[in-house]
Amino acid sequence: MKIQLERDVLADAVQWAARSLPTRPSVPILAGLLVKADGSGVTLSGFDYETSAQIDVEATVTDEGQSLVSGRLLADICRSLPNKTVEISATDKQMEITCGSARFTLQGLPVDDYPALPEMPAETGTVTSAQFGEAISQVAVAAGRDELLPVFTGIRMEIEGDTLALLATDRYRMAMKEITWNPGSASVSAQALIPARVLGETARSMTSGDQIRLSLSAASSGEGLIGFEGEGPGGTRHTTTRLLDGEFPKVRHIMNLQGVVHVRLSTNDIIAAARRVALVAERNTSLRMTIEDGSVTLSAATGDQAQATEAIEATVDHVAENEMTAAGFNPQYLLDALGAFTTPYVDFAFTAPGKPCLMTGVQQLDGEPETDYRHVIMLMRLPG
């Protein structure tokens, strides 16, 4: 194999293809990155039996062939190369990389032992890449991080015709986003539970093109696989990942709760105030929101060592007679949720102390809430 390509194209491609390679692989061969050259260009592939990543890049191919080398080492080398044309020549036993006066030789891994990447399922439909990336980022903030509870580390995708819904929860907060997409069939109906980390990385990396092609294996096939294809820096990217097992909790009904008190705040104002007040919030204690006519006051403390309060102008609407005058938020959960909104204002719908609070975006202070994105936070019980 002998190829020539630009340094930035190579560095981006290797970095992306090697991103999911295990640091401590159960089988040494899985640490490898497969580089294959043919008449159409160069393809780089990585696979860990759960997630596959493959990218096609343009290159000048003098001799066709393939080589398998340490993916993480190759990524480190490519990032460090000078900004010049890179030449790569390889045999079954080694790969030689030349860039300017820099030269590296890597030991090759046995290509015949490398597992075959899973085949991409049939295309299910396409979605606008920018819209999809924003939707994933809004929902992923509510996904769990505890690998001992894998069902909560996923994002549930629900497809019904031209509506694609994304849901995530870690039991203490929930997020749902609904977008319109282009299904291959108007009657398509499917569900999948996808690892949030993989879905987030995929959406961020396929933003160069207008669309992302989504391919979901049929439930009856038993494959449990979803694939994405889209354009990223340097070339076309393909990725597949196995779906998570387990029953995703039924949270949709919580997204429809009816608040007895609605508080509307400027998104920028509440984010800035919450960040300041949260500086003195003691670990595992709440950030208190006191609701008054025309304003709310945020407060937090670390015992007797530090206290903070800040008042913010608000529109407060009491839908029914109640005694809801204060709410306790996990400070980080509140900031994560607020950071996911792109609207100028946020509507807080409260039901009762210690009960779920529904947050929705509002374009105008007196306008209707936007229901395509909804975020629910379980309130903390306040002392006394």
What do these coordinates show?
- It is a single chain.
- It contains 6 helices and 27 strands.
- The protein has 384 residues and is of the alpha+beta class.
- The chain has 3 domains: 112 residues, Roll (DNA Polymerase III, Chain A, domain 2), CATH 3.10.150.10; 120 residues, DNA Polymerase III, Chain A, domain 2 (Roll); 122 residues, DNA Polymerase III, Chain A, domain 2 (Roll), CATH 3.10.150.
- Strands 6-2-3-4-18-17-16-10-14 form a 9-stranded antiparallel β-sheet.
- Strand 21 and strand 22 form a beta hairpin.
- Helix 1 packs antiparallel against helix 2, helix 3 runs antiparallel to helix 4 and helix 5 runs antiparallel to helix 6.
Strand content: 35-45%
**Number of spatially distinct domains:** 3
**Rg over C-alpha atoms, rounded to the nearest angstrom:** 25 Å
Q: What share of the residues lie within helices?
A: 10-25%
Structural class: alpha+beta
- Count all strands and give the number: 27
Any low-confidence stretches, pLDDT <50, length ≥5? none
* Biggest pleated sheet: 9 strands, antiparallel
| CATH arch. level architecture of the largest domain | Roll
The strand order across the widest sheet is: 6-2-3-4-18-17-16-10-14
If helices are DSSP runs of H or I spanning 4 or more residues, what is the number of helices?
Answer: 6
What is the CATH topology assignment of the largest domain?
A: DNA Polymerase III, Chain A, domain 2
Provide the residue-averaged pLDDT.
92
The CATH class of the largest domain is Alpha Beta
Report the span from N to C terminus.
73 Å
Molecular shape: elongated
The CATH H-level superfamily of the largest domain is: DNA Polymerase III, subunit A, domain 2
